[in-house]
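tool_call: predict_structure(chain=1)
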Amino acid sequence: MKKLKMEINKKNNGITLIALVITIIVLLILAGVSIATLTEDNGILTRVKEAREKTKQANVEEQVELAIQASIGANGKINMEELNKNLSYIDKLTYKGNPISSTNKIESLAVEVVVDGCNVVLGRNIKSITQDGVPIPKGFYYVGGTKEEGVIISDNKNDENKGISHEVITQLQGNQFVWIPVDNINDFQRFNGYTNGNLQVLPEPTSEPYENGYINEEEEYNKMYESVKENRGFYIGRYEASKGENELPESKASADAWNFLDWGKSMQELGTEGVVYKAKSMYNIDSITSTLVYGVQWDAIMNFIDSNYKDGLCSESSYVVDSINKGNYSGNIMQTASNENYAVKNIYDLAGNVMEWTMETYVVWGKVLRGGGYSSTDGYARPMSYRGTTSYDNLQANFGFRVALYINI
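tool_result:
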């Protein structure tokens, strides 16, 4: 009997020990789950911290927005002197790491301000600024690239941070544009292009805006110019324009270039069929304005590709002088971005495929096209800086266009 009792006690002790071990293991698991729930990337503590930071950021953005609104004058424009004064009341205000003072003021709305550790972009139409100073307009998303190699944006969030390689362009869903820096507004003018390896003298007389053009032409040009001056650059279509839904232009890879379009109904009337009207109708949003590329913008692209362009000192091997390996001169039109070798600064087909209408005017009946076309017999004779002239109503398979964007101010 005594022996049986001892065996029963042993069994009970064994069961108790196992239960204790299991309980400890369960507690450890629960503790681990609890800690993870609190501390992991999506944990409670992390989410609380993120919510606190977002609230702080929103409060700072509201402070800055109120300062901006209080600085708008009767003419609807922001008075920079008032803005600096209003922002000076905000605690710990710095611009690019330096405190705002009477001798160190904000000179532009396209800048990033740090307030109490929070970044705020001054400029109601600018969403963010890249590390090297390129403004991303509201409604667009950074795809990839640097200021030096060409920053790419898209109007589709699914393209965000997808990168710049040729392999990913067919995966991108939105219209894409590339930033053209204009750090010195004095360089924002038209320059002589090249043909057959030699400087091509600017055709005379030339005009941009055309003095006898349509009613809003000068006003539109001046707005574009002021935006480029304010923001130190503009965006150009990464691709030649193609036809999208509702006959609106698109800037996408692997598409048919939109050709057989004239410049406009006349030099004084755009109508609804020509490239100027189509380019202007691409976007109807507050942050940006879309236009047909101006001649001065085309030359800014050439300066971006080769800084010697503005001085007429490009070497014979420069892409703006000899584009034979940078454009389609095959005699047959190709889809946009068909060849990765035809990209310079992340912009495709500047040299060949279709010649591109611009806003530049030549004499009273003609408009300027830039770059070469697929039917050009010699790529050396038709580089990306080349100017051609034709009547405003000329419809050709070899003529297309490209859309430019500027940030509204």
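agent: The CA atoms of residues 129 and 135 lie 4 Å apart. Proceeding to next step.
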